[in-house]
Write a structure and sequence with these properties.
This protein has 188 residues and is mainly alpha-helical. The protein has helices at residues 2-28, 38-53, 57-65, 82-93, 110-119, 128-139, 146-156, 170-182, and strands at 97-99, 164-167. α4 (82-93) packs antiparallel against α7 (146-156) and α5 runs antiparallel to α6 (128-139). The chain crosses the membrane at residues 7-25.
Length: 188
């Protein structure tokens, strides 16, 4: 028994250190790029819930009349952060991509794309070039890389489930939007 402890104790110590390191990294390093303040997370969650119901061009016009941004929030372009750009681009991409799981949805509109593009001139954020590239292509009606765009943002958010694997046909896209409007698409 005494000989067993000679090799078992170092293994046990390594396992404890490795487990602690894993949890520390998960909390402090791996989540850095998608880390959002609690109020940002709450606002994003509210926008997601609203987006499940308000997905028409008419409602976006109502937002404007109410002094809200195209996503139905009071947040201005100068208040946009990495978390918002990732949330909005990721959610809009769901309209175009095939994926086994999708959380969050925002109807793609030219007004939303332009608003986000113009917002990049108002803020200083790390991944501006990536967002500008995606939004510029989308602004020009080019969604041929929407699955890659989705996965770029998904990776920034440390995605583990729901990687895009293709682009929806027009019929599949229309059916997806209808499912969102009916409330049969699950959101988080």
């Amino acid at each position: 028994m005494k000989g067993t402890w000679k090799w078992l104790l170092p293994i046990l110590i390594v396992v404890i250190i490795a487990t602690g390191t894993y949890y520390w990294m998960n909390e402090n390093i791996l989540n850095e790029s998608s880390e959002a303040e609690p109020e940002v997370e709450k606002e994003i969650e509210q926008a997601r819930e609203q987006a499940k119901q308000d997905v028409t061009e008419e409602e976006i016009e109502e937002y404007k009349e109410e002094g809200k941004n195209p996503f139905g929030q009071k947040r201005t372009q100068s208040e946009l952060s990495e978390a918002y750009y990732q949330e909005y681009i990721h959610g809009m991409s769901h309209q175009k991509v095939k994926a086994n799981k999708k959380w969050g949805f925002y109807l793609i509109t030219q007004e939303r794309i332009e608003w986000l593009l113009n917002g990049l001139d108002e803020v200083d954020i790390d991944n501006e070039d990536i967002y500008r590239d995606i939004l510029t292509r989308w602004s020009n009606g080019d969604f041929s890389q929407a699955d890659e765009d989705h996965n770029t943002i998904w990776r920034m958010q440390n995605g583990t489930v729901g990687e895009a694997y293709g682009i929806l046909s027009e019929a599949e896209e229309a059916a997806y939007i209808e499912q969102v409007r009916e409330g049969s698409i699950e959101g988080r």
